[in-house]
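Batch manifest, entry 17 of 40.
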Amino acid sequence: MKTDIQIKEDNLKRIGDEIKEKSAELITSIHHQDEEKERRDEANSKILRKAEMQEREAGRKG
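Output type: structure tokens
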């Protein structure tokens, strides 16, 4: 039979393990969000550069 202290220690270990698992999930999620943001930012920059070039070309022709 487990003592109250052993039960509490087991519960604390379980809670600690759950916290570690959730922390790892959050870190992974944040990392993926950062990667996605970088891809979007890069795509937006390309679109802006293309639009700027088109404006310059239109200015030369106009």
